[in-house]
Structure prediction request, 78 residues.
Amino acid sequence: MNIKISNTNGTKDNRNYVRVYLNAIKIAEVSPSRRNPLGYLRQYQGSKYWGMMQEQIMASGCEVWQVDKIMNVARGMV
Prediction:
């Protein structure tokens, strides 16, 4: 299971994204309105964006243990 968390700052449409890839397939994308979106998610883990990201990961067909592992990577714990 290859997990990658991507943090984009200020793309051409002035939106910042946090994207979650599992085995090179994008399974989640959220767009907090902050300059450093991944830092924001890690600081405010109770935000609506955190919940949206978790829902998208679960909707992609991942099992509960995989969701926990992906969210730990997003937290910066692994």
Q: What stands out?
A: Residues 48-59 form the longest helix (12 residues). The CA atoms of residues 3 and 70 lie 7 Å apart. The chain has a mean pLDDT of 90. The longest strand covers residues 3-8.
